[in-house]
Amino acid sequence: MAEGVTARATAVAILDGILGEGRMLSEFSGPDLAPADRARALRLAGSVLRHLEPADKLLERHLRKSPPLTVRNVLRLAVVEVAQGAPAHGVVNAAVDIVRSGKRTAHLAGLVNAVLRALTDVAPLPPQKLPRWMRQPMVHAYGRDAVTAIEAVQAAEPPLDLSLRAGFEAPEGEVLPTGSLRLATPGQVSGLPGYAAGGWWVQDAAAALPARLLGTQPGERVLDLCAAPGGKTLQMAAAGADVTAVDISGPRMARVEANLARTGLAAHLVVADALIWEPDAPFDAILLDAPCSATGTVRRHPDLPFVKDGSEVAGLVELQARLLDRALGWLKPGGRLVFATCSLLPDEGEGQLAAALARHPGLAVERVEMAGVEADWWTEAGGLRLRPDYWADRGGMDGFFMALIRA
Ligand SMILES: C[S@@+](CC[C@H](N)C(=O)[O-])C[C@H]1O[C@@H](n2cnc3c(N)ncnc32)[C@H](O)[C@@H]1O
User: Sorted alphabetically, which keywords does the UniProt record give (predicted)?
Assistant: First the structure.
């Protein structure tokens, strides 16, 4: 068998699940695989999703009719690997081996061999374009050039960002202007210096800013609403706040618990639907990191454009408004709230803020100085709009919207 067949065959199976059954990349556990093969399979599947349409365009010229999905995915993977500079010989041999070993695909091994032998010298592929439901509102909000720049950033595998605790050991990396540590080639996270001691946690540089915007002080009573898997809970607990973390998902809250245990930090954890739950006393500050389309995280979740179709957005916008209205009612007089979403859709950010201000005329939006935050990231209404094409030469950042609201 050709080298690297296990990881490649697994990548093809992952692509079959995503493109054939609408499964998410995060649903793949791969328990029977060696960690290195698992990581490689996920990386390969992600690379294909980041260049799927350009790869298909190239393949179309060499195919008279479209082969079954698995064979298409084998071809896509091979074309993307060759375009990224992998030696064609090994890639083609592995592709032929995978097709030959499948009962339903074996008869197409000759076709795969012939198509790929004609494609051994492929130029780098252009980035995958976002689907219309994401692209259109983004072009309207940010302009065509910005969306093209966002797509270019999303075509590359993102770096790994860590939030650091002062005085703890951390790996070598680039300290970003906002204070996060960026690792270009991280390897196994649990093997990095300082992991076991809980000196840091994985958190995109953009995702680290809502808690910074809220600026919790030691001893303040703070609510982290929609808290799991807990990056912001850890930040606020590390800042000395008395944090109550609420999330509807038990399994996701178990990850908050594990993160707190590893870092030795503490918070009160509540698994509850925030549309029903009531606190027993008001809070000094609330961070609402509301459920959203997650369109800002495509660079980390390249499967998202293929498994979502935008039909959930209207329901999410309504849920965000209901959560925000409830949370505002749980603030002490003069208390503050950060509303945040990892979305690039204005309806889940700028529009949500405008609608909240219209519903609650007494509220004020505040801008605060934060190291590394550039002046033109602030919107006219006082929100902070972060886009993946910011810091593009460093690997970008997740798309986010956040606003600090004073009651
Ligand atoms: C964007 S994620 C939160 C990420 C988290 N703040 C962090 O930094 O790790 C949104 C969360 O909202 C939770 N959620 C969705 N609907 C909810 C509800 N009605 N009540 C409470 N939590 C909810 C989801 O389970 C999910 O964990």
Answer: Methyltransferase, RNA-binding, S-adenosyl-L-methionine, Transferase
